[in-house]
Amino acid sequence: MRKIWTRMMKGAAAIAAFSMLVSALPQQAGAQELAKDLFGSHRLPAATKPQSIGFYSKGCFSGGVAIATDGPTWQAMRLSRNRRWGHPAMISLIEKFSRDAVQDGWPGLLLGDVSQPRGGPMLTGHASHQIGLDADIWFTPMPDRRLTPQERENMSAVSLIDPKTRRVIEKRWTPAHARLLKRAASYGEVERILVHPGIKKKLCDTVTGDRTWLRKIRPFWGHDYHFHIRIGCQPGSPDCKRQETVAAGEGCDKSLAWWFTEEPWRPNKNPDAPKARDVMTMASLPKACLAVLQAPDPVSLASVTYPGGGAATISKADPIAALAASGGLPAAASAFAPTPEIGVPVPFPRPVN
Ligand SMILES: [Zn+2]
């Protein structure tokens, strides 16, 4: 008995010494490393088949494509963030939406964040946008000129909401805003559109005729200078966790009235608590996300950039533009610059809607 006890004590001492050694080591790579650092460091997507894995706020995706920084009917903002990436269905939907919006009389889309190249938690901002199925669109219409990269970093969007009343600022709200949201809601893939409660209220109070689309317009914090489009899990993504179906009805009822009470706006009781993205390690994400991190890069940025304009195949390249587009910053890829032909098909077909 005594012998066993001594041996146990020796073992315990060894374990204690070992753990002291381990805790003295710097943070090791691997399961304990923060997922936002790992996903935030990839500049290109996982070159495997398109697949969303996990949930909008806890997951990743492979086979991502980027929307070009510029198209005939859109301009991407905040290029330095490199968040123009999404599931091909999301990216082609944005492109189609931008064309339809112009048909409706909107001057073109200013595009905010979609996802990082391989999704996952981000270094800053958003809890969601992790599986390539979320996109932010500005309420500010696209200007009639190309913004410079600097303007795209610094220009601020204009809020539609009076922070005191939490209602829409009448002189900023236009019927074109309502048409834009109606168009976004018209696509079968779109499950939810997040807007500030004041915007939902404005729609509830003013939309005439068909109101069924109001169901998809969901009140949420923020979203006073941009709206957020969320599409459903796409075919070929068995590990994509779908969101609960939105409640039936227009949502112009008690659930909306709650947003105009004090309760949703009370200050956070624990403002210093860390955000989920700041503590998420690879162990908290679906296992398949490790393979997404380790998957090879595509041959170039251009090969995975969706140029829009209905182009399904890409014509012969101007080699200088091709070089810039494949090796350069995302800003180098433009719908107006020829994209090199390298045998990787641009995502096609588009979703039917
Ligand atoms: Zn968003």
TrEMBL record:
One GO process term, biological-process aspect: proteolysis
A GO cellular component annotation in the UniProt record: outer membrane-bounded periplasmic space
InterPro entries the record matches: Peptidase_M74, Zn_M74/Hedgehog-like
GO molecular function, a single term: metallopeptidase activity
EC number(s) on file: 3.4.24.-
Keyword annotations of the record: Disulfide bond, Hydrolase, Metal-binding, Metalloprotease, Periplasm, Protease, Signal, Zinc
Listed transmembrane segments: none
Top-level taxon of origin: Bacteria
Top-level EC class: hydrolase
Extent of the signal sequence: 1-31
Protein name: Penicillin-insensitive murein endopeptidase
Lineage, opening ranks: Bacteria, Pseudomonadati, Pseudomonadota, Alphaproteobacteria, Hyphomicrobiales
